[in-house]
Amino acid sequence: MDIKTRLKNYGLWISVIALVPMVCKAFGLTILPDNYNEIATGILGILVLLGILNNPTTETNGFKDDKGSGNKKGKPIRKYNLKEDKVDKRDYYFKNHILSKSVQLPKSIDLREKMPPIYDQGALGSCTANAGCANKSYFINNRLQFSRLFLYYKERLIEGTIYQDSGASIRDICIALTKYGVCEEDFFPYDTTKFTQMPSLLADKNALRYTINSYHRITSVEEVKQALANLLPVLLGINVYESFEKVGKNGIVPMPGNFESVLGGHAVLLVGYVDGATTINNTPQKLCDFIRKKTSSQGYFILRNSWGTDFGDKGYMYLPYEVFEKIKNDIWVIFQ
């Protein structure tokens, strides 16, 4: 057992011993030797040392060291700092776009095969950039990987918070991709310790090759399905409830309980849907209904997350329409 562990285990006893001389002096007791002040001072010095040694250790790969003050079980550190979009009358709406009415909806759509590998954002609040880069990579048939760190920097440049891990909004993704584009991963690799670093001029130049044309706000389940039926992924902001973190390997997102707290906001990418399903990811419907605390289902969306492949169904999740209505926030679709 090292010194740090010993001091932590006996910290309470040290505190009591340090207080005894002070109590004796206060009541005029003479049971302690004349040098009790020196003894107390020495013990208090040990307490100070304990405080120094007990500082949290550094974080790596989105986890706190198991010797620090973080979760002893290595629970991932999640940041929920998605910002809500501000109202802007200039927004384009997908319902006014010709594509919103041009396709008869099929029973299901699944774009996962054309998606890049699942990302892991780690402890950085870069969910918006992870969703945006996956969307952009899909547009070029996954031929390239794009820099999430570059896009996250540009989002925060728009927000005026480049030196803070402050998160961004879904609209910030769209504005950044329109104005700056996004560079290839090799120009600005994903290193969470460098999130405040300004991208190079070469990265900026490369990014201008990969901009988008426009982006449109979505306001309903039907519009989401129309976009997906037109083979367009959909950027989704959600309110994260406590149960969202407990999604199992079946990937089913449960209906939040009546007394659950909202932990914050998170950006994801919708990549498919299934209408009138009798199972969700091969899970029997009755069990799905129990999990969601519902008695019926109209279908579900397929959701791409950015917490690595160990979370959910290899990084994907299944969002029943009624749960979608409960947790949805801002919704956007971008056009290449």
How many discrete structural domains?
2
CATH architectural label of the largest domain:
Alpha-Beta Complex
Strand content: 15-25%
Backbone CA Rg: 26 Å
Number of helices: 10
CATH homology-level superfamily of the largest domain = Cysteine proteinases
Name the poorly predicted regions. Answer: 1-9, 52-72
Q: Which H/E pattern describes the elements?
A: HHHEEEHHHHEHEEEEHEEHE
Q: From the helix content, strand content and strand pairing, which structural class follows? A: alpha+beta
Number of strands: 11
Q: Could you give a short account of the major beta sheet?
A: 7 strands, antiparallel
Shape summary: elongated
Helix content: 25-40%
CA(first)-CA(last) distance = 59 Å
Mean pLDDT over all positions: 83
Domain Peptidase C1A papain C-terminal: 105-324
Family: Belongs to the peptidase C1 family.
InterPro entries: Papain-like_cys_pep_sf, Peptidase_C1A, Peptidase_C1A_C
Transmembrane segments: 12-33, 39-57
